[in-house]
Amino acid sequence: MSGGPLRLAVLVSGSGTNLQALLDAPAAPFEVVVVGADREDTGGVERARARGIPTFVCRVADHPDRAGWDAALARSLATHDVDLVVSAGFMKVLGPQVLAAHRVVNTHPALLPSFPGAHGVRDALAHGVRVTGCTCHWVDAGVDTGPVIDQRAVRVEDGDTVETLHERIKVQERAMLVEVLTRLASDRSWR
Ligand code: GAR
What we know:
By secondary structure, the chain is an alpha/beta fold. The chain has 6 helices and 7 strands, in the order E-H-E-H-E-H-E-H-E-H-E-E-H. The protein starts with 5 loop residues before the first strand and ends in a 5-residue tail after the last helix.
């Protein structure tokens, strides 16, 4: 490792259990320095506040258009000295200003390139696949299209609902995310 812990900004839209896995990772070579959300009252922001980590909310509705929101999100991130942005259940497509300023890692609840988008678990279940899983990938301008970093497979069980399947995927996803960020912290050749 070089230069101390990898400084992470984590973006969330929901309950934030992936964020929590990062916060709880023992002896991690990374540090969550700020958590941002695209909406009020997310569990993710609550989890960050409980740890005394700075937070911000940047809502699309508070800006005239997507470009204005992208610029505001880029400004919020720029006030923190971050090495890497992690999209952990962030349900928005990031814009060009954020992507020009940061490398971004996303976690997605399906085996990309299958089932991209906001409903990866539902779409995989509806398709009838017997194996799905989760993917950690670099973010590019597309929707869940960037280079894959790591994946975990999860079997679909008879009787699975979107909720039961998603919960089993998230168990794998949290472990994958911690492992990926640990690797990215120890080998920073991606910077
Ligand atoms: C995770 O499963 C993540 O992959 C998914 O939202 C969940 C967030 O859980 N993201 C997407 O579907 C993005 N397309 P969490 O809030 O408990 O970390």
